[in-house]
Design goal:
heterodimer; A: 3 domains; B: about 450 residues; Rossmann fold; six-stranded mixed beta sheet; about 40% helix
């Protein structure tokens, strides 16, 4: 039966995706929820929580407030906190009960903005989608609201990195190495959405030639920047030798204005990669062109993804029941260690920790594969 | 990139001198912040105390995330499964089918047959009016040799009626089936951490010829079921009391509520009532109080006038502990608590009268995210939240009084305080581990 999990984990939810995407930008994010979402987020989904005092709060929705539809308390509480902290923006993200009672979070944000004079967004997250949907909506809102001015293009070929959160890049240096990997290939990084850069830096995004969507969390912003400034986007995450292919696509997109999703020819794949769509696709491509591994890979996107990016053997699957038949025949499975219990014993399992799935459990063991797949090659 | 802004804030709204605080909820209900201290148990940890039971949670993915990873961090995924509620289920109203078929599907796939299933439903079921009685009836028909009990992950109810924590501790014993009561058997109920067996609750029971069983002692489901034979349930944790009342009504087991205290007179009175209920003489506690005085004196020589801060997660009676320490010369400088239980009322009044300037800090108030977390001198923190908010590496790493009770409990707490004051701990690492004492890594 779909929707059951005998043993495997579940991905970070959309509401945490909003928090994660906006964490470093100086805003205040409010989860409209009773409780639980806050501790889940800051325990399992947010490695920066202990050290950095980002303003991510909870509304503490009660049964009576939900029954009576008391949005005034939510609005008053947000305004009160905003008046104390003066955030650069305010985001309100929904959870299951606000969805059920039909809370209009965009209207709530609009009232908050009028009362505080601070830009405010409402996100109709409901805890029923994965983080990529929430993070994508959050970064889209930032692009839409704050990147409004066409700034001069950089002299050198340049990109914005869209969709960079610890949920996909952990805190092991991967986010920083995205920049160095591209710079080594003559591509400047204007801004990283949204690790390591400020809101002010993100406002320079229109000066980039191309956007690089490094996780599905970046697609919303990519579309806004495409529509508003004509910036094409390339979809793919730098991994090992695949980064060369990405760099060529970035060059090509800058010249042609086309959106591109580079692929390595992959067939008779013996290796299966499970994970976030863009990461899993890119890793499958990187494996398939790696000079040491000499084997092809297919991928299963376990978070929201676009069918158009799938090659013949690739799939989108989320539930245990959907996944199980797709793993038959695999010689090697590369996935978060919490997938191992459902993987066939006949396949070699290589655990590749993913914060968006197992949270902090394997954080210390997550390798940075940006520059090289050597770590992976040793285990295959 | 990211900078602390707390120095620009004052403590208004996040701190009150106890003399100006109202009982039991001193702070305004506003947006909330959740600090990094994670040692308190959640409903997953507590449910796993039932041996040979399997937990199934039915809720939205966002709510599942925290509980799934709790189980994973306990390395207990094999006793844990989930049913994910999606938008279509809410819209189509097929919640009962999803629950019944989901549980059936999971039980069909498990490599073992659990003796019991703890089925956790959520706020969504509550709001949508899911017919849970029907669901449980169908499941019991389908699986007559598995016991089912209702558990709840409905935090939206935390401000009305029994809290999810109280419901969980009640649910822990809901699987017990009626048995003939044994006149010399007692249960200790309502605790996440096992009670220290050297405490007076055990020694008095032993002297009166009673045996005491706590759920932690039960190695299998049969042993757990034998708890239904006890004639009385002992409970010293306020959040466990509702479970005792339910058992009294359902199984006829008399509830003896013996609240934790750090006050000699209160402990003596409570233990006197306890001894009387067991039909034995009240022991003379003169020696016990003398030993406590000795221990207090010794701890004072170690800790001296260093600031001592206490949070509500370390013990169910933070104000009683504060009173004990203040009356023995310790320099208690802050309490961290968002509200107080009824048991705190007397100590609250005493502190208002005798130490009206003692600061009470909220732990969830949003300013606590920003206010400086530091102290200017070596500070002893009792509890993880107190340690977090003071950034003190000298802290008593415990929750729920550590299972220590009575006069022996006072002495054990003092030993923990001495140890904590002498030996530095890795606060950042330790307080982020979930469910202290439950096996989480």
């Amino acid at each position: 039966m779909k929707q059951t999990a005998r043993i495997i984990s579940t991905y970070t939810a959309d509401v945490s995706g909003v928090n994660s995407a906006l964490f470093e930008l100086g805003g205040m994010t409010v989860m409209h929820d009773a409780s639980g979402c806050n501790s889940t987020y800051n325990t399992h989904d947010e490695p920066r929580w202990y050290d950095f005092d980002s303003m991510v709060f909870l509304s503490g929705l009660s049964e009576m407030e939900a029954i009576m539809g008391d949005d005034d308390k939510l609005i008053d509480d947000i305004v009160s906190a905003a008046n104390q902290f003066h955030p650069k923006f305010i985001a309100v993200a929904g959870t299951p009960i606000p969805m059920m009672i039909g809370t209009d979070l965009r209207a709530v944000a609009s009232v908050v903005e009028k009362r505080t004079g601070i830009p405010a967004f409402g996100f109709s997250t409901n805890g029923m989608h994965t983080y990529v949907q929430g993070a994508s909506a959050a970064l889209e809102a930032i692009a839409d609201r704050f990147v409004t001015e066409q700034r001069p293009k950089t002299a050198q070929l340049s990109v914005n990195l869209l969709g960079v959160t610890p949920l996909d890049f952990s805190v092991n240096g991967s986010a920083e190495h995205l920049k160095t990997a591209l710079e080594a290939r003559g591509i400047t990084v204007v801004s990283s959405w949204a690790m390591g850069d400020t809101l002010e830096t993100l406002q320079n995004a229109s000066s980039a030639h191309v956007n690089l969507v490094v996780s599905r969390s970046g697609i919303g912003a990519a579309k806004v920047l495409r529509e508003r400034f004509g910036i094409p986007y390339v979809t793919g995450r730098p991994y090992g030798k695949f980064t060369d292919k990405l760099a060529k696509s970035i060059q090509k997109a800058a010249e042609s204005g086309e959106n591109l999703c580079p692929q390595i020819q992959r067939e008779n794949a013996k290796i299966v990669v499970i994970g976030e769509g863009v990461s899993a696709m890119s890793l499958a491509n990187a494996i398939s062109c790696d000079p040491v591994i000499h084997s092809h890979a297919r991928f299963i996107a376990a978070t929201e993804f676009a069918e158009c990016y799938l090659d013949r053997e690739d799939r989108i699957a989320r539930d245990e029941d959907e996944l199980l038949p797709l793993l038959g025949g695999a010689q090697v499975i590369i996935a978060d260690p919490l997938y191992q219990p459902i993987c066939p014993k006949t396949a070699k399992f290589v655990g590749l920790g993913h914060e968006g799935f197992s949270g902090r459990i394997f954080r210390d063991e997550i390798p940075d594969l940006t520059e090289s797949l050597a770590w992976l090659a040793e285990r295959l | 990139m990211l900078k602390r802004m707390g120095r620009e804030l004052d403590t208004t709204g996040a701190m009150l001198p106890i003399g100006q605080a109202t009982f039991p909820a001193p702070f305004k209900s506003e947006l909330e912040y959740s600090c990094s201290a994670r040692g308190t148990w959640n409903i997953v940890h507590t449910g796993f105390l039932v041996p040979e039971a399997h937990e199934i949670f039915a809720c939205a993915a966002g709510c599942l995330r925290g509980v799934v990873l709790t189980a994973a961090e306990m390395n207990a995924q094999d006793r844990f499964s989930t049913i994910e509620i999606r938008e279509n289920n809410v819209l189509e109203g097929d919640m009962e089918d999803l629950l019944i078929d989901g549980v059936t599907d999971i039980l069909g796939k498990l490599p073992y047959k659990p003796r019991a299933v703890l089925l956790y439903t959520s706020c969504i079921h509550h709001f949508i009016g899911c017919d849970l009685k029907l669901c449980y009836a169908r499941l019991r028909e389908r699986f007559p040799d598995i016991d089912f009990t209702d558990c709840y992950m409905n935090p939206i109810m935390r401000k009305s009626g029994l809290t999810p924590d109280q419901l969980m501790r009640r649910g822990l014993y809901a699987l017990l089936k009626p048995r003939e009561l044994h006149p010399k058997k007692l249960n200790m109920i309502g605790n996440n951490l096992a009670t220290d067996k050297t405490c007076e609750l055990y020694t008095i029971a032993e002297r009166a010829g009673f045996s005491v069983t706590e759920i932690h002692d039960c190695k299998d489901y049969d042993a757990y079921q034998s708890m239904a034979e006890a004639c009385m349930n002992l409970c010293f944790n306020p959040v466990g009391k509702a479970g005792g009342e339910a058992l009294e009504q359902r199984l006829g087991q008399k509830l003896l509520y013996l609240p934790l205290s750090y006050d000699y007179d209160e402990i003596t009175r409570i233990l006197g009532e306890y001894a009387a209920a067991l039909g034995t003489e009240t022991p003379d506690f003169t020696g016990e109080t003398a030993l406590c005085e000795e221990a207090l004196s010794h701890a004072k020589t170690v800790i001296g006038d260093a600031p001592v801060v206490i949070d509500y997660t370390a013990t169910m009676r933070p104000l009683s502990l504060a009173k004990l320490l203040l009356t023995h010369g310790f320099n208690v400088t802050a309490i961290y608590a968002d509200s107080f239980t009824g048991e705190d009322r007397g100590d609250f009044a005493w502190l208002q009268a005798n130490h009206p300037d003692l600061p009470v800090y909220a732990t969830v108030q949003v300013k606590m995210r920003m206010l400086p977390r530091e102290t200017s001198e070596k500070t002893l923190a009792i509890g993880q939240k107190a340690a977090y908010f003071t950034s003190s590496p000298y802290f008593v790493n415990t929750v729920e009084c550590g299972g220590f009770y009575g006069f022996t409990g006072i002495r054990q707490m003092l030993l923990l305080m001495e140890e904590a004051f002498v030996h530095e701990k890795d606060t950042r690492k330790l307080i982020q581990i979930k469910g202290l004492g439950c096996g989480c890594v």
